[in-house]
Amino acid sequence: MDPFTLDTGATAWLLMSASLVLLMTPALALFYGGMVRARTVLNMMLMSFTAIAVGAIVWTVCGYSIAFGSDIGGIIGDPLSHLGLHGEDAESLLAGSGVPFLVAAGFQMTFAIIGAALISGAIADRVRLRTWVLFVAAWIPLCYAPLAHMVWGGGILSGSADSLAAWMFGTTGSGADAVAAVAPIDFAGGTVVHINAGMAGLVLALVVGPRLGFGTDAMKPHNLPLVMLGAALLWFGWFGFNAGSAGTADATAGLAWVTTTVATAAAALGWALVERIRDRHVTSLGVASGIVAGLVAITPAAAAVSPLGAIALGAVAGAVCALVVPLKHRVGIDDSLDVVGVHLTGGIVGTVLVGLLSVDTGLLYGHGAAQLVVQTVVAIAAIIVSGVVTLAIALVLRATVGWRITPAEERAGIDISRHAEAGYDLVGSLASRRDRRPVRIEPAPAPAPTAADRTPAPTGGDVR
Amino acid sequence: MDPFTLDTGATAWLLMSASLVLLMTPALALFYGGMVRARTVLNMMLMSFTAIAVGAIVWTVCGYSIAFGSDIGGIIGDPLSHLGLHGEDAESLLAGSGVPFLVAAGFQMTFAIIGAALISGAIADRVRLRTWVLFVAAWIPLCYAPLAHMVWGGGILSGSADSLAAWMFGTTGSGADAVAAVAPIDFAGGTVVHINAGMAGLVLALVVGPRLGFGTDAMKPHNLPLVMLGAALLWFGWFGFNAGSAGTADATAGLAWVTTTVATAAAALGWALVERIRDRHVTSLGVASGIVAGLVAITPAAAAVSPLGAIALGAVAGAVCALVVPLKHRVGIDDSLDVVGVHLTGGIVGTVLVGLLSVDTGLLYGHGAAQLVVQTVVAIAAIIVSGVVTLAIALVLRATVGWRITPAEERAGIDISRHAEAGYDLVGSLASRRDRRPVRIEPAPAPAPTAADRTPAPTGGDVR
Amino acid sequence: MDPFTLDTGATAWLLMSASLVLLMTPALALFYGGMVRARTVLNMMLMSFTAIAVGAIVWTVCGYSIAFGSDIGGIIGDPLSHLGLHGEDAESLLAGSGVPFLVAAGFQMTFAIIGAALISGAIADRVRLRTWVLFVAAWIPLCYAPLAHMVWGGGILSGSADSLAAWMFGTTGSGADAVAAVAPIDFAGGTVVHINAGMAGLVLALVVGPRLGFGTDAMKPHNLPLVMLGAALLWFGWFGFNAGSAGTADATAGLAWVTTTVATAAAALGWALVERIRDRHVTSLGVASGIVAGLVAITPAAAAVSPLGAIALGAVAGAVCALVVPLKHRVGIDDSLDVVGVHLTGGIVGTVLVGLLSVDTGLLYGHGAAQLVVQTVVAIAAIIVSGVVTLAIALVLRATVGWRITPAEERAGIDISRHAEAGYDLVGSLASRRDRRPVRIEPAPAPAPTAADRTPAPTGGDVR
Amino acid sequence: MKLITAVIQPHALEAVTDALREAGVAGLTISEVAGYGRQGGHTEVYRGAEYRIDTIPKIKLEILADDADEPGLVEVIVASARSGRIGDGKVWSTDVGRVVRVRTGEEGPGAL
Amino acid sequence: MKLITAVIQPHALEAVTDALREAGVAGLTISEVAGYGRQGGHTEVYRGAEYRIDTIPKIKLEILADDADEPGLVEVIVASARSGRIGDGKVWSTDVGRVVRVRTGEEGPGAL
Amino acid sequence: MKLITAVIQPHALEAVTDALREAGVAGLTISEVAGYGRQGGHTEVYRGAEYRIDTIPKIKLEILADDADEPGLVEVIVASARSGRIGDGKVWSTDVGRVVRVRTGEEGPGAL
Ligand SMILES: Nc1ncnc2c1ncn2[C@@H]1O[C@H](COP(=O)(O)OP(=O)(O)O)[C@@H](O)[C@H]1O
Ligand SMILES: Nc1ncnc2c1ncn2[C@@H]1O[C@H](COP(=O)(O)OP(=O)(O)O)[C@@H](O)[C@H]1O
Ligand SMILES: Nc1ncnc2c1ncn2[C@@H]1O[C@H](COP(=O)(O)OP(=O)(O)O)[C@@H](O)[C@H]1O
């Protein structure tokens, strides 16, 4: 182990990047929260906020170790290597660029959190918060961390000498220095975060089932300025995600910053164009959605493509996602906020387009199809891993604590029925009208029968 | 004075941290603003925004000097040392880590601002803006800056050889290098900012008195998504507060970043758990409140505890604050937005738990009770200083300009009656209805009688 | 060309600054969006969001080159020099401080974007999105980039030996090192961004004409908390704008950070004071507006004035803008959100006051009037350039695609009529009422007659 | 002429308007109201303080109709709004002296 | 049957509903309305432009009642809603031909 | 006494209240309602899913008036609310048995 030399500039950028990526999850809460109906906004936001709370703790206890601890069979890291985030700066993931251990570990923590939070959009308005909390607590160590290990921790989906890529196209270098000749490229998490979360969302949408009224009732966004604010903060945070993934503040980070910006710009226009042609209207929700699609798609490619390549990649991603999103109505899957249409689709588009647009290895730059093949294989492998593991977790939870709130609770709105709160009370004149009187203003033990009334019965009793 | 060598990395992080901490005050405006009724949201937000405006100027003129100028009796700094923020880079508080004078001074400015702004939550919906502005202008130089001097500027609550701690447990080192053997730990302002603001809030709530209808009328939050956005931006800004308090971008900053995140995560869960047991519902307001409680509690401890220790500290803080908050209804003090329940309580919990959980000096790590005693003494001293000074300022203001708006103004809602504005006009169809006509669209001198009508009379005339 | 040496600290700060300035445009979307009526909020926000999308791409393709490519006649840079943002790190605008090419180019990109977006406030609620998109695509390369070249790229409004300033007051140094004896000061874009955008706003307001009902109907802000959030995020982002313009993380950046904060604080108080005297009420919109006015005014001066000088500059700017804003009602120009009153006015105030308050060259510091003259001349020159070029673009667009939506569309509200969306659906009980049924949930080609119905006719047919 | 007023459950709105359209009603006016009755309300909790909300969102419909059509339309509304659960609401009708269509000035049945 | 309509101050709502409940009223329907009258309105100022808002938030109550109960209930409302200040509002009553409870189809007094 | 009810276009509100004030009306009560009628609605599109919104925002006015004033006031409303386009709305009037001013307890015409 080399001795560690601090680089304050790299560390400053990574501290900032970690903060930016952490901000992405509340940003997602706004983005998702504005898209649901007013009477479920708080539950939707709580799913993101609890993902942060649970994810941070799980990551600290064992998640980091499973992702980046000493390799076990190319599948996971040793959960005991860095229990409780114990580690020396010289063991830092970014020791080479002078970033201390905990800064790098904290930066990675934020990726696990947003990965889990993304999934919640697929199952909006209808699940018990405790089940969601347990899901996050299981999914990060069992699904996210292993996949992170496989791709970024030297596992079988990385560019190591023992990887799938090495098996397909051989290795270069020799001995301990041998690496895959054609290494998969996932610069900042197109596979690990977005394909993973998107696939998990698809599985949960299927296991949990559609909202009451899906396909017949209107379920339109209740607060689009909130959605746009969320999209903007996601973009802002994504600079940490992508440019921070350079591991230091250098020209690579600069390239990632620029490609992230221009791909996103192009994706917003791509989505808008599809809307203009198909629906005759450019919508703000479309532009906000295009922004997220572009951010997702450039994530794996951010340091591999040129600025002009990024524009092409973004435009394609925006248009493709815009076309995929409405398909859920055809197939009847209530992926409520389009986790599949945006994150799975955008993640696949970006991951695969790297094989075409990578300046150093891409098909369009005359480097043959090897990179394209590797990218496709890794994408498929990630889909399988995520699908299988998520399905297992989801089914266990269905059989034990159960996912769904009661139909009556769902009809009344999950905020009122499960959280005893209302998102808004905006009518000035009545905001404090006396019929809304505090009937109990000091803590008291919960009366047993009422508690039972509100506890969801698997048989679906009516709350009213 | 050593010559100054710039460290661009440390400076980059401190510039960013200062920006982040400045953002905390608008974030607080959202957090507080969403919690009041729709008809007082603007006044609530204005209290934070004017705290920035006034605080920045007062700090520049004399606040910084009083906090960090040459020591006078262990109580204050010489107000003339850095008048107008005049100073050499070699005199920078962070000269040792290569951060220029104005960057360090600006960073500290943001702490004074948020400290003052926090207090406003205790006196929501009912005070004259001018009195608040005068209060901030007085409180920062007379209460905040002296306490900052005592704790961080080498005063009697610091670890200097002339401090309370040195008097209790002796000193180590000798001559000019002598320091207290057991130095108080307030890494980022648990005492200076949170205990201080929390105590000031208690005093103001008592001096100003409760809102009309407190205890009988419902006064529920009007916009919880706004509250959650505020909590999220507070968290984001707090990375500057805590990790920035390392003074550079290094492993200490990394530790502070991680402990800040995990303590906050644990506190959110701790508060939620209390709610689940006591009220049968986990609420979004509870999770948002737990987040703030955790951020407050980890502040003094951020670099002293381990990640696992931070989880414990956060969980305790979240649960304790959740239990303390409803007590105000029992004692009948209208601390409207729980400045006491969250900031005073959380600040005390964090400051005292350092004595247990500090890895290097804490009781639970086998280092005896000295740190615990020192922490407790410093907390009590801060409570006394803040209580006495704030009471003096508050009473002078009551006797001169007066705190309260008239009862009629309060009933009509402070936004309309005092600021001639309404927070929202959301009903699309009526947003521009013609009965809302601009009757005067150019400046004109205020007609004297009307002005008199709206000026609050101490006798409480009815505005209608 | 000197070899390039990376400075990670400077690069970290510039990456962060670029991210902060990019955030300013969504912040503007909130600030502007909250100020219009509820039924036009989405279109208003879309104008900012599309400015980002189009601006990022135009800047990448040719904007940067026109601004900073090899000089052509002191007016523009060679559009081919850096096509597609191609360039070596040694060619970086900030090579001297160790910041890579793309980081510096990305940072500058964000200035062009916000400059264009600012203009939209002058023509709220009434223009076709496609015309706006075309305007931005033309204005950045034809107006913004040339002016940036003239002022910052070594052109005729810079301090180069071939500049207007050199022509007026001579040069110092000799040969290739010769520069203007009295160089114009535009630290961060008072001229290039704010005077430019403000003048462009005035021209567009005149060309596009007033909203239906301007001067008779009430058009009051629909969501002031959104406005205040926008102002806060603008302030936060402006730290990147101003302190980032130091080009590295050093004492100059620290000075810019502090002056930005205190000038803004003083401007908020200055605007509030004018309101208190003139209107008898301090308003939150006034404080938010004062914040923006202060940020605008300190922009050119941020590193030239002292902290106390910045307080003076800010106070003047806040008060002057507060007095100028209502004049639009007298002259009958519907500069809907006061781009002229805030950005043009604030930009002029700041640019001119540099001539008085610059510590090294200002009149009040005993350095004579030369700087004041140069500043005034540059401001006038920028007004002329911006006015003429913007007018040409605006008239071409009027003659071709046309600016205005139909009167019926405008009456119905541009969100519904042009974007088929509503900003809010907040009434919980009705948020999903069944009469809002999805009638078509899968893509289908647009039926020709309906499309024709909704296409705005130059003759202004009624949509209903 | 009669004015029929109905206070119904929000989720019944579409069924009722569909049924009325089929019954030949060309127009009606809808308001959002809050009902207070047997149905009870719900509880909200903010930082440990409980609030009892007694009122429940309802929809009010107002339909002007010919005297002859009134009994039939009341039946249609009652039938289409009924879920059988407490809180389904009330329907009542009152006499109207005069009805005018603003656009044309037409009066009586022609104004509908 | 009678329909009693009351336009009252928002802050009187709880007192009125409490008084009506004591007087035996089991249900009523509440709307948020804007009143225009002697009470005047208020002024708002945005960036120096003044707006005159002539209307004031009020609460409208509608109570269906037996003919016999009507005079007493009007008294109850007037008494409990009165503050003595301008703007306290109006109470009026009209004849209702027919009342139906949707849930059961009951008519007349039994429908209340 | 009569109760005049008018459902009008939102943008006609100021013209109507101005005209009524000139005609001597001292007060009225305003509600925001949604109208359903010949005028049709509009379409919204979210992520490619179209929503048909059948209702249109309208304003409802309620004016208590002397029997003698009623015909004239109806004329005033119809005249000032008319734009001639579909959707201008309806005006109708009903008999009112009793009107009380809450503040004073005055009844009948003196209550207005
Ligand atoms: N006496 C009344 N006058 C006016 N509206 C009433 C009256 N009683 C009930 N309502 C309205 O009818 C709704 C349903 O009444 P409720 O008593 O809850 O159930 P149900 O009609 O099924 O017996 C109430 O929410 C209220 O809006
Ligand atoms: N002629 C009227 N018709 C209908 N509603 C009225 C009428 N006059 C007054 N109102 C309603 O009564 C409320 C109070 O009336 P106002 O004249 O302000 O005070 P007061 O009733 O005490 O004389 C008004 O806000 C309005 O809602
Ligand atoms: N039968 C009715 N009963 C009650 N309100 C009605 C009725 N018909 C129409 N309305 C109201 O009048 C408004 C205008 O009616 P509409 O049919 O659109 O146009 P017009 O009155 O010009 O023929 C509707 O939006 C609705 O609020």
UniProtKB/TrEMBL annotation, chains A, B, C:
<dbReference type="GO" id="GO:0008519">
    <property type="term" value="F:ammonium channel activity"/>
</dbReference>
<feature type="transmembrane region" description="Helical">
    <location>
        <begin position="44"/>
        <end position="67"/>
    </location>
</feature>
<keyword id="KW-0813">Transport</keyword>
<dbReference type="InterPro" id="IPR029020">
    <property type="entry name" value="Ammonium/urea_transptr"/>
</dbReference>
<protein>
    <recommendedName>
        <fullName>Ammonium transporter</fullName>
    </recommendedName>
</protein>
<keyword id="KW-0812">Transmembrane</keyword>
<feature type="transmembrane region" description="Helical">
    <location>
        <begin position="192"/>
        <end position="212"/>
    </location>
</feature>
<dbReference type="GO" id="GO:0005886">
    <property type="term" value="C:plasma membrane"/>
</dbReference>
<comment type="similarity">
    <text>Belongs to the ammonia transporter channel (TC 1.A.11.2) family.</text>
</comment>
<keyword id="KW-0472">Membrane</keyword>
<dbReference type="InterPro" id="IPR018047">
    <property type="entry name" value="Ammonium_transpt_CS"/>
</dbReference>
<feature type="transmembrane region" description="Helical">
    <location>
        <begin position="377"/>
        <end position="397"/>
    </location>
</feature>
<feature type="transmembrane region" description="Helical">
    <location>
        <begin position="339"/>
        <end position="357"/>
    </location>
</feature>
<dbReference type="InterPro" id="IPR001905">
    <property type="entry name" value="Ammonium_transpt"/>
</dbReference>
<feature type="compositionally biased region" description="Low complexity">
    <location>
        <begin position="449"/>
        <end position="464"/>
    </location>
</feature>
<feature type="transmembrane region" description="Helical">
    <location>
        <begin position="281"/>
        <end position="302"/>
    </location>
</feature>
<keyword id="KW-0924">Ammonia transport</keyword>
<feature type="transmembrane region" description="Helical">
    <location>
        <begin position="101"/>
        <end position="124"/>
    </location>
</feature>
<feature type="transmembrane region" description="Helical">
    <location>
        <begin position="308"/>
        <end position="327"/>
    </location>
</feature>
<dbReference type="Pfam" id="PF00909">
    <property type="entry name" value="Ammonium_transp"/>
</dbReference>
<dbReference type="InterPro" id="IPR024041">
    <property type="entry name" value="NH4_transpt_AmtB-like_dom"/>
</dbReference>
<feature type="transmembrane region" description="Helical">
    <location>
        <begin position="12"/>
        <end position="32"/>
    </location>
</feature>
Automatic annotation (TrEMBL), chains D, E, F:
<comment type="subunit">
    <text>Homotrimer.</text>
</comment>
<keyword id="KW-0805">Transcription regulation</keyword>
<dbReference type="InterPro" id="IPR015867">
    <property type="entry name" value="N-reg_PII/ATP_PRibTrfase_C"/>
</dbReference>
<dbReference type="InterPro" id="IPR002187">
    <property type="entry name" value="N-reg_PII"/>
</dbReference>
<dbReference type="Pfam" id="PF00543">
    <property type="entry name" value="P-II"/>
</dbReference>
<dbReference type="InterPro" id="IPR002332">
    <property type="entry name" value="N-reg_PII_urydylation_site"/>
</dbReference>
<dbReference type="InterPro" id="IPR011322">
    <property type="entry name" value="N-reg_PII-like_a/b"/>
</dbReference>
<keyword id="KW-0597">Phosphoprotein</keyword>
<dbReference type="GO" id="GO:0006808">
    <property type="term" value="P:regulation of nitrogen utilization"/>
</dbReference>
<protein>
    <recommendedName>
        <fullName>Nitrogen regulatory protein P-II</fullName>
    </recommendedName>
</protein>
<dbReference type="GO" id="GO:0030234">
    <property type="term" value="F:enzyme regulator activity"/>
</dbReference>
<keyword id="KW-0547">Nucleotide-binding</keyword>
<dbReference type="GO" id="GO:0005524">
    <property type="term" value="F:ATP binding"/>
</dbReference>
<keyword id="KW-0804">Transcription</keyword>
<feature type="modified residue" description="O-UMP-tyrosine">
    <location>
        <position position="51"/>
    </location>
</feature>
<dbReference type="GO" id="GO:0005829">
    <property type="term" value="C:cytosol"/>
</dbReference>
